[in-house]
TrEMBL record:
The keyword Iron-sulfur does not apply. SUPFAM superfamilies: Epsilon subunit of F1F0-ATP synthase N-terminal domain. It is found in: Cell membrane; Endomembrane system. The lineage of its organism: Bacteria, Pseudomonadati, Pseudomonadota, Alphaproteobacteria, Hyphomonadales. Its main location: membrane. This is ATP synthase epsilon chain. Belongs to the ATPase epsilon chain family. GO terms for cellular component: endomembrane system; plasma membrane; proton-transporting ATP synthase complex. GO terms for molecular function: ATP binding; proton-transporting ATP synthase activity, rotational mechanism. Keywords: ATP synthesis, Cell membrane, CF(1), Hydrogen ion transport, Ion transport, Membrane, Transport.
């Protein structure tokens, strides 16, 4: 039996996954990267995007992360995400409704609002999440 990569994905709310997998592809800020068993150690920051877990050449899980860090060590890959969700559990209609509400609030607050940056980041996150769900 081939060796497997130990992979854990943790957010402040909970551990979303921990187990043995063949391959993980993650959205690094410098570009997407893949990790297999016995990968050289490194650390990377993550951007909003989809973490794909593969068994063989088949994607078995898609997890959306909102930023964070990926740490590859001899023990495996650990992703510490600011926020993470299993895309299989996301309802696109709920994301659409929240996105429209966030856009409306952003518009009503205006560019001079002290909350403008946080509201824009939330709109960007919801837009990225929606795109990931529909693809």
């Amino acid at each position: 039996m081939a060796e497997k990569l130990h992979f854990s994905l943790v957010s402040p709310a909970k551990e979303l996954f921990s187990g043995e997998v063949d391959h993980v592809i993650a959205p690094g800020t410098e570009g997407e990267f893949g990790v297999l068993v016995n990968h050289a150690p490194f650390m990377s920051t993550l951007k909003n995007g989809v973490v794909r877990v593969l068994e063989g050449d088949r994607t078995t899980m898609r997890l959306f992360v909102r930023g964070g860090f990926a740490d590859v060590t001899p023990a495996g890959l650990t992703i510490l995400a600011e926020e993470a969700v299993d895309l299989a559990s996301v309802n696109v209609a709920d994301v659409d409704a929240e996105l429209e509400e966030a856009k409306s609030k952003l518009l009503s607050e205006g560019k001079d609002s002290p909350h403008h940056g946080a509201l824009q980041a939330h709109v960007d996150y919801l837009s990225d999440l929606k795109a990931a769900v529909v693809h």
